[in-house]
Amino acid sequence: MAIRFLNTYTRTLEEFRPLDSARKTVKLYTCGPTVYNYAHIGNFRAYLFEDLLQRHLEASGYQVNRVMNLTDVDDKTIRGCHAAGLPLAEFTQKFKDAFFEDLKTLRVKPATTFPSATDPVYIARMIEMIAHLVEHECAYQAEDKSVYFRLNKFPDYGKLAHLNLDELRPSGRISNDEYEKESIGDFALWKAWDEADGDVVWDSPWGKGRPGWHIECSAMATALLGPEIDIHCGGVDNIFPHHEAEIAQSECCTGHRFVRYWLHCAHLMVEGQKMSKSAGNFYTLRDLLDKGWTGREIRYVLLSVNYRLPLNFTFESLAGARSALSRIDEWVARLTEKAGGELNASAHPLATQKRFQQALDDDLNISGALGVLFDVIRGSNRALDEGNLTPADARALLGWWDSANSVLQFQHEEEAIPQAVLDMLTARAAARAAKDWAQSDVLRAQIDAAGWIVKDSKDGQKLTRK
Ligand code: AMP
Ligand code: ZN
């Protein structure tokens, strides 16, 4: 079965065909954090679903070039640095560092590139794009000196969000003094400097100012990934206006369709409300670590519900994650103990691998994938209890778990047995069966060098971490 995604743009389940399907490369852009504070776990739900996406694509043989931007200039970062009495770059660096640390705690694979909006290369790119839009009359400088995108130049605006935007379309110039824009829907590309900006300022052909948030993403995405991107992700709150604006700006600049597949995760909720800084109902990762929960448990909770469904955060769900993970740990420990035994023929769990993969191929159906995992755990525990699971079966199951875990990242770190070590164990069992003691010793040394100790008992080989 091919990989299929529910594309927000078309609202249909579509077979995934990247632009460069011959080389199996995927260009992935994911909107990153605004670095004015610690990210909350709602934000991390978005980054974790993107991690699942990247890891599943990689497990399926794709090479993923992922860009995640850091929004390090906007109203909130400016307000924050002034309140802290720090230069903008110094203020945001602290939260960039914290963000990278949090990603590690949650076992999120780092993006290929983490561009910052204030990097002079991207500021120059933003100015270049805005100039192009102005030149082609897709943008204009208003009386307040800011530059706005002219919405009526892009009839597709609103298609991603499936909104009726009639009221946002211009019906002649709005005379109300409140609006200096031609139409209330026109959004800012370049914001003219005002006093609240203080020393956060760049020169531009339209005077001093700073970029708008939307153009930041269009500039970084097209600079690093080119005019056409395979997949663009974010939370559903990003759809409008942010992603609509990204499409409008990028397509008017490049003349290409900006994104082939749009994937958006539903919100992390708390008692029926979106978890957000402004609602004050949020937990940062650090809050939960301080309460004794681990990154792995939080990862499990945030990943375990399909990304298109809202996920209600509770402490019971964290307790549930703890017990699910300890079931996995016990299972892996039992298999590891069994795996050291003598070589037997084994049915390689190909069917399991296929069921697991097919679940994730189906728009990242994690509930289905976890269902396969716990079925396998139940079945193999029963077989172990009944003495019906051979060492070779155990090795094959661990081999499968190794590949499933490369996507899930649920393994207790100390117990991860790399596939290479499992292979050496199998080869050593074969050497011992053939009474090739010299080869058996060579393999023991190799296993040792890979960080594992193998001991021979009357039940066969026993593997432990060094
Ligand atoms: P921000 O730092 O506000 O720009 O948000 C960063 C990312 O987190 C965006 O992709 C948002 O859509 C996403 N996000 C924010 N709040 C939540 C939430 N409660 N649940 C899931 N994703 C969220
Ligand atoms: Zn963005």
Using brief descriptors, characterize the structure shown.
4-stranded antiparallel β-sheet; 15 strands; 4-stranded parallel β-sheet; alpha/beta; 466 residues; binds adenosine monophosphate; binds zinc ion
Could you give the topology of this structure?
Layout: E1 4-7, E2 12-15, E3 25-30, H1 41-59, E4 63-68, H2 75-84, H3 88-105, H4 120-135, E5 139-141, E6 147-149, E7 188-192, E8 209-211, H5 213-225, E9 229-235, H6 239-254, E10 259-265, E11 268-270, E12 273-274, H7 285-290, H8 295-303, E13 311-312, H9 315-339, H10 350-361, H11 366-385, H12 391-408, H13 419-433, H14 437-449, E14 452-457, E15 460-465
Parallel strand pairs: 3-4, 3-9, 9-10, 11-13
Antiparallel strand pairs: 1-2, 5-6, 6-7, 7-8, 11-12, 14-15
Helix pairs in contact: 1-12, 2-3, 4-5, 4-6, 5-6, 8-9, 9-11, 9-12, 10-11, 13-14
The structure holds adenosine monophosphate and zinc ion.
Plain-language structure description:
The chain has 466 residues and is an alpha/beta fold. Helices cover 45% and strands 14% of the residues. The protein has 14 helices and 15 strands. A four-stranded parallel sheet has the order 4-3-9-10, sandwiched between helices. A hairpin with a 2-residue loop joins β14 and β15. α2 crosses α3 and α4 crosses α5. The protein is elongated and about 85 Å long. About 2% of the residues have low confidence. Zinc ion binds next to loops.
